[in-house]
């Protein structure tokens, strides 16, 4: 059976619609025919400063949200990245294979360090894509379901896999990104040129899965739309309306074309009002289920422990192989 792996950072109290439509929904679908590993990327989270208590809480909230959206721990292994030491260990080996200039070309680092300036960014933020390559390669997956912003990191991962395989012996599989075009980049509601992001979006720009449903409805109704009044998908001319159509289409399994027809001759206001209702209907049960799961920490801990055991077994076997290839002497 083809293998699948992906991760998400516990960098906010809630996942948002970009995370869900860009990646997490595919996680749920892919469990049917694959044996996935999904992890909560706490090592990645600390590339920017985190409050320890908050990070711990968010890690458990992330696990609860994954279960609430339909990740089944019998089919999928859900684990916390820092609990599987092979990730950090393999990352060092991958760092020694990565060119400095190659790492410099990663646009996410440029984006994320732009605000405070490169000098203020951590070295961890700089080497983040290399840790990500280690995360992925350890599990030898066929597919990595992610949003568009991760495409460049997946290319680096494949380059590093290939480099390792040719320098030593064939050890890693070259993974394919699994990116659904329609929902690969959900935009910020207030700034439709930018992607919706846990750490960069303003509160009004982001629909959080765990927001009060009435708050989410209000955000949809106040989303920035474009000049003109025609409801039409046009990513260049009408990025705001197009983003709303994308979200609407994904949540209702209606094609964008059908939505354009439905709203022909009606204004943006109607579209927003109806989408707000759709969003409320979608997030209400999700939110209830997540809060329920958060009340049973023993269950969450048990799910994460089961995931950790399975992940550790696979990752450690690959790491042992990697260490041997590199020329490290195995302990007696
Ligand atoms: P941060 O701002 O802390 O980086 P994030 O919102 O980018 O948070 P991540 O945890 O980095 O979320 O990414 C989790 C997954 O969600 C990745 O697969 C990423 O590609 C996807 N993703 C994130 N934002 C979007 C978006 N706006 N549209 C589509 N997919 C997205
Ligand atoms: Mg991100």
Summarize this structure briefly.
By secondary structure, this protein is mainly alpha-helical. It has helices spanning 17-30, 42-45, 52-68, 86-95, 100-104, 107-114, 123-137, 151-167, 213-221, 239-252, 256-262, 268-294, 297-326; strands at residues 5-8, 37-40, 77-80, 143-145, 176-178. It is built from 13 helices and five strands.
Low-confidence runs: none
Q: What structural class is derived from the secondary structure elements?
A: mainly alpha
> Could you tell me the mean pLDDT?
96
Query: How helical, in percent, are the residues?
Result: 40-55%
Topology as H/E string? EHEHHEHHHHEHEHHHHH
Q: Report how far apart the termini are.
A: 35 Å
* Strand order in space, largest sheet: 1-2-3
Principal-axis shape equals: globular
The ligands found in this model are: adenosine-5'-triphosphate, magnesium ion
Major β-sheet, in short?
Answer: 3 strands, parallel
Q: Compute the CA-based radius of gyration.
A: 21 Å
